[in-house]
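Entry 12.
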Amino acid sequence: MSAPPPPLSWLVAHRGWPERYPENSLVGMQAVLEAGARWVEFDVQITADGHAVVIHDDDLRRLTGRRARVTALTLSDLQTLADASTADAKTLAPTLAAMLSLVKRYPGVTAFVELKRQSIRRHGLQASVGTVLDQIEASACPVVFLSFRWRAVRLARKLGKLPVGWAFRPWSPLAQWLSRWLEPEYLFVRADRVPRRTHPFWAGPWRWVIYGVADPASAKELRARGADLIEVDNLPGMLGDLDRSGRDEPAGTSVDPER
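Predicted 3D structure (tokens):
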């Protein structure tokens, strides 16, 4: 019997290391890369003047306390706002180019780049997808384009040559049908949306990525049920927990309603 694959081959660092550093920050991403991450995931919004920046929220109140939207600010205005905010907020919204430049320094690492829906709504599908693809192609870094919007996934497939991922919310026959129609290389779904009876996951040309997993027992259980990759907020901590864990025990999962 062959040995099981090491955890670093199937753990994905979600937004860097948000349990210790500001989410989607260069410092947080570098920390997990130094810890050995082989897969990372982060979010992208598009500024008013067409720059792709790494940040989850369009509304900046949660991160800065300011009533402003990334999609309505120029890159210069966004950087000025970050400089005037708290210490943590000063790490706000690095450019996609800067983040990919960092990832490229670590050979063998693949980045999932998620284009957020607010940018698509504000700037349009073609412009938003095109902006992200241009930055990805210029980086020459192993990247998977990711979105919850199936139209964005379909357009990225049409315009580019890179692999794509589709993230969906309701576990439903429609989601399964769209998966088979889109044929992405990766399918993303939150752990608490996977029916407990599911074993294995839908078969197809894709690899399954399950996010919202907070403990080693849940990670092992999902892997046993057919998940390929497990996305976590604390990759170094999960590595330590998996190393110490000798049993598969049922456990809960964390919830990330906005993702």
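Annotation: The beta strands are 11-14, 39-46, 52-54, 110-115, 143-147, 164-167, 186-190, 207-211, 229-232. The chain has ten helices and nine strands.
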